[in-house]
């Protein structure tokens, strides 16, 4: 059944697909016939009707036909082939920047040609640059395109270098033929399937819509033919999460009861009172931890809302109950900062805290492994190095994952599986700062219970955000200087030149040189992802202690870093970053009582979208609002930054476009799970085969 849509048949089985095409397709994530069938068009084009040349509108995408009256190669800045065509109503030009002599001779005067593309305004005549064209026989001329393909909409697929639309189309057509010979069973329960079209018919419409099909509806995800697949995929996703949750509820964990042995003295020594929101969330956590079923709770709280304290209070409960705790952070810098905080908090209470990151020497790692196994370490903090197989806990009672959106759903699930290896499963606490709209959270975190910290600690002043072009760098440097002279500290974030840590690091190194020349009296330091662990640690310590005034950094400081005396942040190339990332970065300032500023520097001119983004940053400091705007500005068609959203890749679902379906899907999932467990299983096998292993139902 997992092969409902021929998932077991590799692409190479299709006629005409050899190793080279196979590897091209696999770059698109297409490995099986099923993947191919579920590679849905991005859009459709109508190539069936042709327009009279005299009536075409600039910007319109259409087909024109005419007789070639002149065909010439011209050389201006570069060589071009210009082909003039004429019909009864006017003249148009086909312009080719890439061509060969064969093309020139086939586009000879007197021949009839039809050409398809976007009409641009030329200096004398309308023109199409690089049209798709076809030389026509005299018989075809004047009659509209005759071949069958063009009586339908032409699907346009996302593709990769070296894979043409025609090749994709042909492959999909042969996949469809194969499917028709092996008709799939229905996997939706009848109550649902009766509302949709059968699978083959639906796929036919998606890949070969006739000219009467409402393709706008297909693109909008509203056509019955596509809705069935959206529904199937959402159901599969949701069901997998539900099954994981049910599975978890059948497990046992160690129930923990508060003794106050550590919690009371810890709170007494804390220089501030937890906020109401923190107290409420901690109560949720304590209630979960008192049960003999593993906790699976997500704590969502905006940057600076104080999630670390919540984690510490949860950890103390476990440690009071003689259990070990592990806290995992996505970056070394953050792991080190947590280590520093937890040492300060826990060591006076006599609790042993240790750090484990990938950068430790083999010998030191081994020492840690031993201590962990012997149960000598109560509180282990680290990066994902804490989840290698060699780490064997003596009695692990609680797993805390910080900034989980950095890990993604599948990674989170694999950690969950790793943590849960003994008879007794640890409780899990998952923390995230990226707030996502509620409907999306219902899907992405369907397996978790959620608590929200909806209040910031008192005494914070909102950060004032300023947007300035690069050209006014002098003023910014002046501002940095003033802040430092007033005993404040400054971050200067040098962002993504490319998606490359090395290039990022190089750019940051150059910037430091420049700033040292311009501001010789300041203490300036640099931190980036390519530095050694202990170097990073030294730099961060010096900044935290106030010794360093200006810290030049790559986005390694994006999450978690907490230095309350820093009150100015400069972000270079801010226009290239997403809103959630800007919000996270900006969250590094405004943590103390001083008025803080965030300067977003950009390279002019700003695109429309970038202008909107900058405006949102200036106007809002609320993570939920910013997340919502981020989605709106990106629009529904665009792919979500999966890293940012912590969302698994969907094949046909667009979470923004389809979010209105989510509450129905949630309800349907429950009854399918109850009444049609086989359907549930089949849906997951078909859509999320890789998630199978987390479900031991
Ligand atoms: P985040 O939620 O972004 O992880 P942190 O846990 O880093 O936030 O906390 C941000 C800052 O707020 C830290 O300096 C922390 O000590 C401080 N803080 C946390 N809770 C409170 C509180 N209840 N009152 C005052 N300051 C607090
Ligand atoms: Mg944090």
TrEMBL record:
Query: What range(s) does the Helicase ATP-binding domain occupy?
Result: 288-453
Q: Name one GO molecular function term.
A: ATP binding
Please name the Pfam families in this protein's record: DEAD, Helicase_C, RecG_dom3_C, RecG_wedge
Q: What class of enzyme is it?
A: isomerase
Q: Which SMART domains match?
A: DEXDc, HELICc
Q: Which residues form a coiled coil?
A: none
Q: Which PROSITE patterns match?
A: HELICASE_ATP_BIND_1 (PS51192), HELICASE_CTER (PS51194)
Q: Where does the Helicase C-terminal domain lie?
A: 486-632
Q: Name one GO biological process term.
A: DNA recombination
Q: Which UniProt keywords apply?
A: ATP-binding, DNA damage, DNA recombination, DNA repair, DNA-binding, Helicase, Hydrolase, Isomerase, Nucleotide-binding
Catalytic reaction equation(s) = ATP + H2O = ADP + phosphate + H(+); Couples ATP hydrolysis with the unwinding of duplex DNA by translocating in the 3'-5' direction
**Protein's UniProt keywords contain Ribosomal protein:** no
Query: Any idea of its EC number?
Result: 5.6.2.4
NCBIfam families reported in the protein's UniProt record: PRK10917.1-1, PRK10917.1-3, PRK10917.2-2, recG
- Known PANTHER family for this protein? ATP-DEPENDENT DNA HELICASE HOMOLOG RECG, CHLOROPLASTIC (PTHR47964:SF1)
Q: What family is this protein classified in? A: Belongs to the helicase family. RecG subfamily.
Quote the protein name from its UniProt record. ATP-dependent DNA helicase RecG
Question: Which organism encodes this protein?
Answer: Gilliamella apicola
